[in-house]
Amino acid sequence: MVPTTPEFPAIRACIFDLDGLLIDTEDIITTAINQLLDKYERPPMTRSVRAQLMGIANSSNGDAFHDWAQLPISREQWAVESKEEFRRQFPLCAPLPGAASLLANLRRASCSAPSTATSQEDKTQIMLALASGTTAHNYALKTSTSAETQRMLDGFAPEHRVLGDDPRLPGRGRGKPAPDIYQTALRALNATLEAAPAEEEGRPILPSECLVFEDSVVGVEAGRRAGMRVVWVPHPDMAVEYRGKEQGVLAGRTGMVEAGDEAQLGEMDDGWAEMIPSLEHFDYVKYGLNVAS
Question: Does the predicted model carry a pTM greater than 0.85?
Protein backbone atom coordinates (compact mmCIF):
# COMPACT_ATOMS: atom_id res chain seq x y z
CA MET A 1 0.00 0.00 0.00
CA VAL A 2 1.35 3.45 -0.93
CA PRO A 3 1.71 5.57 2.23
CA THR A 4 -0.37 8.73 2.35
CA THR A 5 1.24 12.09 3.01
CA PRO A 6 0.18 13.36 6.44
CA GLU A 7 -1.37 16.75 6.99
CA PHE A 8 1.27 19.06 8.45
CA PRO A 9 0.87 22.33 10.32
CA ALA A 10 2.26 25.47 8.70
CA ILE A 11 6.02 25.96 8.83
CA ARG A 12 6.82 28.76 11.28
CA ALA A 13 10.58 28.27 11.69
CA CYS A 14 13.52 27.06 9.60
CA ILE A 15 16.63 25.77 11.37
CA PHE A 16 19.88 25.34 9.46
CA ASP A 17 23.02 23.30 9.84
CA LEU A 18 26.14 25.18 8.69
CA ASP A 19 29.06 23.09 7.42
CA GLY A 20 28.50 21.49 4.05
CA LEU A 21 25.02 23.00 3.82
CA LEU A 22 25.43 26.79 3.84
CA ILE A 23 29.21 26.98 3.39
CA ASP A 24 31.71 24.72 1.61
CA THR A 25 33.51 23.57 4.75
CA GLU A 26 33.33 19.85 3.97
CA ASP A 27 35.44 20.26 0.83
CA ILE A 28 37.88 22.52 2.69
CA ILE A 29 38.20 19.94 5.49
CA THR A 30 38.83 17.22 2.91
CA THR A 31 41.53 19.29 1.21
CA ALA A 32 43.24 20.04 4.52
CA ILE A 33 43.17 16.41 5.66
CA ASN A 34 44.39 15.09 2.31
CA GLN A 35 47.32 17.51 2.38
CA LEU A 36 48.33 16.16 5.78
CA LEU A 37 47.80 12.56 4.68
CA ASP A 38 50.09 13.18 1.72
CA LYS A 39 52.70 14.61 4.08
CA TYR A 40 52.79 11.23 5.83
CA GLU A 41 52.63 9.27 2.57
CA ARG A 42 49.11 8.06 3.20
CA PRO A 43 46.42 7.87 0.46
CA PRO A 44 43.70 10.55 0.19
CA MET A 45 40.35 9.94 1.85
CA THR A 46 37.94 7.77 -0.10
CA ARG A 47 34.32 8.73 -0.71
CA SER A 48 33.24 6.05 1.77
CA VAL A 49 35.48 7.43 4.52
CA ARG A 50 34.23 10.97 3.87
CA ALA A 51 30.64 9.78 4.20
CA GLN A 52 31.42 8.27 7.60
CA LEU A 53 32.93 11.52 8.88
CA MET A 54 30.52 14.17 7.61
CA GLY A 55 28.45 15.82 10.31
CA ILE A 56 30.13 14.10 13.27
CA ALA A 57 31.99 16.33 15.71
CA ASN A 58 35.77 15.80 15.79
CA SER A 59 35.41 12.88 13.36
CA SER A 60 38.77 13.62 11.72
CA ASN A 61 40.43 12.48 14.95
CA GLY A 62 38.04 9.63 15.80
CA ASP A 63 38.36 5.86 15.70
CA ALA A 64 36.86 5.43 12.23
CA PHE A 65 39.35 7.85 10.69
CA HIS A 66 42.43 6.55 12.49
CA ASP A 67 41.53 2.91 11.93
CA TRP A 68 41.45 3.69 8.21
CA ALA A 69 44.37 6.16 7.99
CA GLN A 70 46.98 4.11 9.91
CA LEU A 71 49.11 7.20 10.47
CA PRO A 72 52.73 6.94 11.62
CA ILE A 73 52.15 9.67 14.24
CA SER A 74 50.17 9.83 17.49
CA ARG A 75 46.59 11.04 17.66
CA GLU A 76 47.80 13.94 19.77
CA GLN A 77 50.24 15.09 17.08
CA TRP A 78 47.59 14.63 14.38
CA ALA A 79 45.16 16.72 16.43
CA VAL A 80 47.69 19.56 16.70
CA GLU A 81 48.60 19.50 13.02
CA SER A 82 45.05 19.18 11.71
CA LYS A 83 43.86 21.97 14.01
CA GLU A 84 46.55 24.25 12.61
CA GLU A 85 45.67 23.29 9.04
CA PHE A 86 41.98 24.00 9.69
CA ARG A 87 42.92 27.35 11.26
CA ARG A 88 44.72 28.22 8.03
CA GLN A 89 42.03 27.08 5.63
CA PHE A 90 38.70 27.77 7.38
CA PRO A 91 38.84 31.50 6.50
CA LEU A 92 38.61 30.40 2.84
CA CYS A 93 35.00 29.24 3.32
CA ALA A 94 32.38 30.53 0.89
CA PRO A 95 28.61 30.12 0.58
CA LEU A 96 27.35 27.08 -1.29
CA PRO A 97 25.06 27.49 -4.34
CA GLY A 98 21.62 28.75 -3.40
CA ALA A 99 22.42 29.33 0.29
CA ALA A 100 22.48 33.15 0.32
CA SER A 101 19.38 33.52 -1.86
CA LEU A 102 17.42 30.93 0.15
CA LEU A 103 18.15 32.69 3.43
CA ALA A 104 17.36 36.08 1.92
CA ASN A 105 14.04 34.76 0.63
CA LEU A 106 13.12 33.12 3.93
CA ARG A 107 13.76 36.36 5.79
CA ARG A 108 11.03 37.89 3.64
CA ALA A 109 8.79 34.82 3.74
CA SER A 110 5.58 34.20 5.61
CA CYS A 111 3.22 31.30 6.08
CA SER A 112 -0.44 30.99 6.96
CA ALA A 113 -0.65 30.12 10.65
CA PRO A 114 -3.55 30.41 13.11
CA SER A 115 -3.46 33.67 15.06
CA THR A 116 -3.51 33.64 18.84
CA ALA A 117 -5.83 36.62 18.90
CA THR A 118 -8.51 35.53 16.46
CA SER A 119 -9.76 32.47 14.66
CA GLN A 120 -8.64 34.03 11.38
CA GLU A 121 -5.39 33.01 9.71
CA ASP A 122 -2.63 35.61 9.80
CA LYS A 123 0.46 35.78 7.66
CA THR A 124 3.23 34.83 10.06
CA GLN A 125 6.88 35.70 9.41
CA ILE A 126 9.25 32.74 9.33
CA MET A 127 11.80 32.63 12.15
CA LEU A 128 15.34 31.41 11.41
CA ALA A 129 17.96 29.72 13.57
CA LEU A 130 21.38 28.14 13.10
CA ALA A 131 22.22 24.81 14.77
CA SER A 132 25.79 23.75 14.09
CA GLY A 133 28.21 21.45 15.87
CA THR A 134 31.10 23.79 15.04
CA THR A 135 32.66 25.60 17.99
CA ALA A 136 32.47 29.36 18.47
CA HIS A 137 36.21 29.60 17.71
CA ASN A 138 35.88 27.76 14.39
CA TYR A 139 32.71 29.68 13.53
CA ALA A 140 34.72 32.90 13.89
CA LEU A 141 37.42 31.52 11.58
CA LYS A 142 34.88 30.44 8.96
CA THR A 143 33.30 33.89 8.90
CA SER A 144 36.51 35.94 9.21
CA THR A 145 37.36 36.62 5.56
CA SER A 146 34.49 36.32 3.11
CA ALA A 147 32.20 39.37 3.19
CA GLU A 148 29.55 37.30 1.40
CA THR A 149 29.66 34.62 4.11
CA GLN A 150 29.51 37.25 6.84
CA ARG A 151 26.49 38.96 5.29
CA MET A 152 24.68 35.67 4.83
CA LEU A 153 25.21 34.46 8.40
CA ASP A 154 24.68 37.86 10.03
CA GLY A 155 21.01 37.31 9.20
CA PHE A 156 20.84 34.87 12.10
CA ALA A 157 20.31 36.80 15.33
CA PRO A 158 23.15 36.01 17.77
CA GLU A 159 20.69 34.50 20.27
CA HIS A 160 19.39 32.22 17.50
CA ARG A 161 22.82 30.76 16.72
CA VAL A 162 23.43 27.52 18.63
CA LEU A 163 26.97 26.18 18.22
CA GLY A 164 28.56 23.00 19.49
CA ASP A 165 30.02 24.57 22.63
CA ASP A 166 26.95 26.69 23.45
CA PRO A 167 26.34 26.67 27.24
CA ARG A 168 22.59 26.42 26.55
CA LEU A 169 23.04 22.87 25.28
CA PRO A 170 22.06 20.15 27.78
CA GLY A 171 24.16 17.03 28.21
CA ARG A 172 27.40 18.57 26.91
CA GLY A 173 29.16 16.26 24.51
CA ARG A 174 25.98 14.87 22.90
CA GLY A 175 26.31 15.87 19.28
CA LYS A 176 24.14 14.85 16.35
CA PRO A 177 22.30 12.45 15.90
CA ALA A 178 21.06 13.39 19.38
CA PRO A 179 18.30 16.02 18.98
CA ASP A 180 19.70 18.40 21.61
CA ILE A 181 21.01 21.13 19.30
CA TYR A 182 17.74 21.40 17.36
CA GLN A 183 15.66 21.39 20.53
CA THR A 184 17.90 24.13 21.95
CA ALA A 185 17.51 26.21 18.78
CA LEU A 186 13.73 25.91 19.05
CA ARG A 187 13.83 27.00 22.70
CA ALA A 188 15.87 30.05 21.64
CA LEU A 189 13.25 31.00 19.03
CA ASN A 190 10.41 30.54 21.51
CA ALA A 191 12.25 32.64 24.09
CA THR A 192 12.17 35.50 21.57
CA LEU A 193 8.42 35.04 21.12
CA GLU A 194 7.89 35.07 24.89
CA ALA A 195 9.88 38.30 25.22
CA ALA A 196 7.83 40.10 22.55
CA PRO A 197 5.35 42.82 23.55
CA ALA A 198 1.98 41.38 24.57
CA GLU A 199 0.28 42.58 21.37
CA GLU A 200 2.93 40.84 19.22
CA GLU A 201 3.52 37.68 21.26
CA GLY A 202 2.54 34.48 19.48
CA ARG A 203 2.01 30.97 20.74
CA PRO A 204 5.14 28.83 21.05
CA ILE A 205 6.43 27.17 17.90
CA LEU A 206 5.95 23.40 17.94
CA PRO A 207 8.62 20.96 16.69
CA SER A 208 6.28 19.90 13.87
CA GLU A 209 6.19 23.54 12.74
CA CYS A 210 9.97 23.57 12.21
CA LEU A 211 11.80 22.71 9.00
CA VAL A 212 15.40 21.54 9.41
CA PHE A 213 17.94 21.85 6.59
CA GLU A 214 20.78 19.31 6.78
CA ASP A 215 23.52 17.83 4.62
CA SER A 216 24.66 14.96 6.88
CA VAL A 217 23.05 11.63 7.69
CA VAL A 218 23.43 12.14 11.44
CA GLY A 219 21.98 15.64 11.08
CA VAL A 220 18.86 14.30 9.37
CA GLU A 221 18.44 11.84 12.23
CA ALA A 222 18.90 14.64 14.79
CA GLY A 223 16.14 16.64 13.14
CA ARG A 224 13.83 13.63 13.03
CA ARG A 225 14.54 12.82 16.68
CA ALA A 226 13.59 16.42 17.51
CA GLY A 227 10.18 15.82 15.91
CA MET A 228 10.84 18.23 13.06
CA ARG A 229 10.47 18.02 9.29
CA VAL A 230 13.75 17.77 7.40
CA VAL A 231 15.17 18.73 4.00
CA TRP A 232 18.29 16.66 3.26
CA VAL A 233 20.82 18.27 0.90
CA PRO A 234 23.68 15.76 0.73
CA HIS A 235 27.14 16.42 -0.64
CA PRO A 236 27.48 14.69 -4.04
CA ASP A 237 29.84 12.11 -2.51
CA MET A 238 27.31 11.42 0.25
CA ALA A 239 24.51 11.09 -2.29
CA VAL A 240 26.46 8.46 -4.23
CA GLU A 241 27.45 6.59 -1.08
CA TYR A 242 23.82 6.36 0.09
CA ARG A 243 22.25 5.64 -3.29
CA GLY A 244 19.44 3.17 -2.75
CA LYS A 245 19.41 3.89 1.00
CA GLU A 246 17.80 7.32 0.85
CA GLN A 247 14.55 6.32 2.56
CA GLY A 248 16.43 4.98 5.57
CA VAL A 249 18.31 8.26 5.85
CA LEU A 250 15.12 10.33 5.59
CA ALA A 251 13.50 8.23 8.32
CA GLY A 252 16.62 8.65 10.49
CA ARG A 253 17.07 4.90 10.55
CA THR A 254 20.58 4.24 9.25
CA GLY A 255 21.89 3.24 12.70
CA MET A 256 25.14 5.02 11.81
CA VAL A 257 25.65 6.26 15.38
CA GLU A 258 23.92 5.04 18.54
CA ALA A 259 21.75 7.82 19.92
CA GLY A 260 18.94 6.43 22.04
CA ASP A 261 15.31 5.40 21.86
CA GLU A 262 14.25 4.26 18.38
CA ALA A 263 10.68 5.30 19.15
CA GLN A 264 11.79 8.88 18.48
CA LEU A 265 12.63 8.07 14.87
CA GLY A 266 10.51 8.26 11.74
CA GLU A 267 9.06 5.60 9.48
CA MET A 268 9.97 4.86 5.88
CA ASP A 269 8.17 7.16 3.41
CA ASP A 270 6.28 8.94 6.18
CA GLY A 271 6.43 12.32 4.41
CA TRP A 272 8.38 14.09 7.16
CA ALA A 273 11.60 14.44 5.15
CA GLU A 274 12.74 14.88 1.57
CA MET A 275 16.02 14.93 -0.35
CA ILE A 276 16.98 17.67 -2.81
CA PRO A 277 20.25 18.00 -4.81
CA SER A 278 21.02 21.56 -3.70
CA LEU A 279 19.46 24.50 -1.88
CA GLU A 280 18.70 25.99 -5.29
CA HIS A 281 16.04 23.28 -5.67
CA PHE A 282 14.06 24.14 -2.52
CA ASP A 283 10.31 24.30 -3.25
CA TYR A 284 8.75 27.15 -1.24
CA VAL A 285 5.24 26.34 -2.41
CA LYS A 286 5.46 22.74 -1.19
CA TYR A 287 5.94 24.06 2.35
CA GLY A 288 3.31 26.79 2.13
CA LEU A 289 5.87 29.60 2.21
CA ASN A 290 5.08 32.94 0.58
CA VAL A 291 8.08 35.04 -0.42
CA ALA A 292 7.41 38.78 -0.61
CA SER A 293 8.50 40.29 -3.90
Answer: yes
